[in-house]
Amino acid sequence: MIQKGLTPRDSANQNSANLAPAPIWLLTRGVHSIQGEPAPGLAQSPLWGLGKVIALEHPEFWGGLIDLSVAVSGDVVSGGIASGVVVSGDVNDDAERSSEIEQLVKILLHSPDEDQIALRSQPFVARLQPLHCPALPASTAKFSLKPQASYLVTGGLGALGLILAEWLADQGARHLVLVSRRSPNPQQQQTLAALAERGVNCDVRSLDVTDADAVAALCAELRQSPTPLAGLIHAAGSLADGLLLGQTWEQWQRVLAPKLLGSWNLHQATQADPLDFFVLFSSVASLLGSPGQGNYAAANAFLDAIAQTRRAQGQTALSLNWGPWAGAGMAEAVRPNRRLRQGLPLLDPAHCLEQLSQLLSDPVNDPAHDPDTFQLGLFQADWPLLLQQFPQFKTSGYFQRSPQHLRQLRQQILPQSFWQQRLLQQRLLQLNLQPKSPFENSCSMPVQNSDRPSWRTICGMRSPISSKSTRPPWLLVEVC
């Protein structure tokens, strides 16, 4: 506030101690696909993971995330890692551009509880919703793999990679390609020998997935082999934790490279391969945020986005936002007291693999059957502890699917843990809403369900896999 008789600079100096910090808003363009529109902003997607961490580490500075429409810009928007595409649309329509700016200004000035917004002709706001469904009956057809095909696992010699190798063998795979930057140590050799005794051929490749030429050469070799590539799991990753203010670019590069470059290289190298599955091991960090893991959340948000890209192209892809696995994965490098303090208990790997088998045998993995389901979260949450640790969850629009759900969050009456591996499907659905801004002082909003799918980001907790939700968690709102 500028006082009379003072210059703006004098006023700012006098009142600096009383001024609230200006909120930080991160803007992207074309990261999310709404109503089937193109989403060429793939390279900007890590900001959506980073933003969720900023919100937790520095709530005093946080404004939110806004994804702008590609149809209102004639700018070059990145369509990949290092290349851009010019977005088509009514780029000369000054009215559309002015409308976007007007809506954007309204959102920024209102500073709402909504901090994840997709701004199109009207804003869409995100909702994380538990979906409770009855248990899925046991499948009559067991998930099985082709014995005359190859299956690739990146991070193949890590604890998680070897668990996945044994699981693939259990499903009938007889030709595995395990990619790792290092040669196997004696303990890993024992696991490989045990697989060989079961008749499984493990082809260990010392290869860095960030090397595009090496990845392309490997996939081309498999394409010409008697056992062509039929599926892959990208489980490679690295940790370099630290609060954002103390992070270095070297730490960011170490974490981003295997996730971001690795997934992109695999995506590019398998364009000609009719894969049965393309599974990306993402993290709950990109779904909820994780203090001290800004780089990790950003890297995994890219995995979520590349799954969206592949599905839009009619290709198979699933990005799985796993919680921490017990006895495997990078969670073992995190101190147990920190994990528990954050309210994310460890998952039983056996249960996780059961869920993975179910997912890959379900129509949810078929882009022709369900082209919009590309991201699923699987984690166990101690919600009361999470709310105690991160009280801003209680007021964030992301967690306010309905007044009833909001009351549950505020009263902390959610059960301490849901069934250990329920699924959170990230999907976006349009709702027909009467005008009501998410900004409390503007309007009122009765909600009506719509069967018309739109921007897909549901996050629903559930056991069975279904292609529809009766309680869409994404809201289409009008800025008043």
Number of strands: 20
What general form does the structure show?
globular
Q: Biggest β-sheet: count, sense, barrel?
A: 9 strands, mixed
Sheet-strand content, in percent, reads 15-25%
The value of Rg in angstroms is 23 Å
Strand line-up of the largest beta sheet: 10-9-8-11-12-13-14-15-19
Instruction: Report the span from N to C terminus.
Output: 25 Å
Q: Unreliable segments (pLDDT under 50, ≥5 consecutive)?
A: 1-12, 76-80, 82-91, 131-140, 402-407, 409-480
Fold and architecture overview:
By secondary structure, this protein is an alpha/beta fold. Helix content is 32%, strand content 17%. A nine-stranded mixed β-sheet has the order 10-9-8-11-12-13-14-15-19, with helices on both faces. A five-stranded mixed β-sheet has the order 1-2-5-6-20, with helices on both faces. Strand 11, helix 7 (249-269) and strand 12 (277-283) form a beta-alpha-beta unit. Helix 6 runs parallel beside helix 7 (249-269) and helix 7 packs parallel to helix 9. 46% of the residues are buried.
